[in-house]
């Protein structure tokens, strides 16, 4: 499904990074090791590299990765693009200083729990998790994201799933976004910034 979605010369979610990532760019420390989870066409990993991070970007779609590589080259940055399924990814312990997981809401609850645990595990002590997605209220807007409420986030869900991290910011809100044809219009969003204890 995802490879078909990205089988177009257009960037489905645009070339600009997610507004969430630019809003939280202060957490992107030059020289840090960054992981962009299910990064798609590369807009977020490219921005992370532009901020001076050493970035690995993983995605399962060859079409998306080809566009991600082209975008990184266009912007003059280096990103290590890896073709891999999010459910098979090796969440090596303490491998990254920053993990960015932006609009990855295509996982069933059991899969999501395993991925969330992996993201926490792969953070180095003192590392930062940047997580962004939709709340169940998004279904009424219909401006992007899944139609199944089981795939969406609530503050209570994220607090429970990341109980081992120190949550620095967790908020739900509405905002107009324009991120390609895939995410466009009034949206019900949720942001979380969490730190792994040092």
Automatic annotation (TrEMBL):
An example Gene Ontology biological process: methylation
The UniProt record lists the keyword Transferase: yes
Domain Methyltransferase, first and last residues per copy: 36-127
Record keywords: Methyltransferase, Transferase
Highest taxon of source: Bacteria
Matching Pfam families: Methyltransf_25
GO molecular function: methyltransferase activity
InterPro entries per record: Methyltransf_25, SAM-dependent_MTases_sf
PANTHER family referenced in this protein's UniProt entry, alphabetically: PUTATIVE (AFU_ORTHOLOGUE AFUA_2G14390)-RELATED, TRANS-ACONITATE 2-METHYLTRANSFERASE-RELATED
Protein name, as recorded: SAM-dependent methyltransferase
UniProt source species: Sinisalibacter aestuarii
